[in-house]
Amino acid sequence: xxxxxxxxxxxxxxxxxxxxxxxxxxxxxxxxxxxxxxxxxxxxxxxxxxxxxxxxxxxxxxxxxxxxxxxxxxxxxxxxxxxxxxxxxxxxxxxxxxxxxxxxxxxxxxxxxxxxxxxxxxxxxxxxxxxxxxxxxxxxxxxxxxxxxxxxxxxxxxxxxxxxxxxxxxxxxxxxxxxxxxxxxxxxxxxxxxxxxxxxxxxxxxxxxxxxxxxxxxxxxxxxxxxxxxxxxxxxxxxxxxxxxxxxxxxxxxxxxxxxxxxxxxxxxxxxxxxxxxxxxxxxxxxxxxxxxxxxxxxxxxxxxxxxxxxxxxxxxxxxxxxxxxxxxxxxxxxxxxxxxxxxxxxxxxxxxxxxxxxxxxxxxxxxxxxxxxxxxxx
Length: 379
What we know:
- By secondary structure, the chain is of the alpha/beta class.
- The chain folds into 2 domains: about 5-155 and about 340-375, Nucleotidyltransferase, domain 5 (2-Layer Sandwich), CATH 3.30.420.40; about 160-325, Nucleotidyltransferase, domain 5 (2-Layer Sandwich), CATH 3.30.420.40.
- About 35% of the residues lie in helices and about 20% in strands.
- The protein is built from 12 helices and 13 strands.
- The chain has helices at about 45-50, 60-85, 130-135, 145-150, 160-165, 205-215, 230-240, 260-265, 275-295, 315-320, 340-355, 360-365; strands spanning about 5-10, 15-25, 30-40, 90-95, 100-105, 120-125, 140, 175-180, 180-190, 195-200, 300-305, 330, 375.
- α6 runs antiparallel to α9, α7 (about 230-240) crosses α9 (about 275-295) and α9 (about 275-295) packs across α10.
- It is globular and about 60 Å long.
- The two termini are about 25 Å apart.
- The relative contact order is 0.17.
- The model has no long low-confidence stretch (mean pLDDT about 95).
């Protein structure tokens, strides 16, 4: 069976940096990761990306420059992966480059009832794929979400089809929870069907609060959260967010779960200790994810957790407490470490694009049908 090499690059809503994998895929799409690398964003660039999640002065100019910078960060990861595997650029079929999401507003605007045209909205990922192709000498596949939007979908999440290929178990229902800045859940049903949607916040709110009060980019292992106490009234306020009660298909991002959203909820709780807020945010993330699983996948036989949140021991403990009797596993137990899963997904998505094969799931995104995703920028 013939094999080929693909690189997947992912910078997610946690805004911590770029994860990349170099993977070997056979003709059936079975994937083996050969190398993984990570390049962090410095504090200044991370602040700029955070700022670009909201309207601001000269944002077109700043977004274009940020897209160039993302391409350069991605190119650094590619160089590291090639060095580690001793492969040449000519030996890599393509790079799957997600880009940095700064706005995600699908299906919200531009409906034209007179012409019977539904709203499309938009999703925006910063990346200069042409520059990335120039810097690496490798074909680049980017802009994975917009084709699904054009077909009436949310454009997200895109990883459930990949989760099915990696984590599905015949005859069993397996749930896969990716906890990045935002959390998304895939339900791999025993009959082979797949559901998937965004549950709500993952690490985004906890990271913001931790940076604001401790100066650390994130709460390592949830250690700070364990020093605080859950505040039930604040949890109730956070849990009243309408997004949590919408049925799938649904997707979200920092457009909703951002510092302004959190600070608005905190106006009635100004006397709370910062550590108590952190403890409550940790419980809130676990609550949002677990309630969706209980609501839509009560038959699940296990929960596989990936993304940075899988490394937060307190969050994993909370997930286990909210799902008594259900095994909660780190994805590494099934052969793919948590920080490699999303990058590997974009290597797989690039593989599908190059072969002109569909990779979207209409029952996940709500699109009119499966589509070939992504645009190719030749080297």
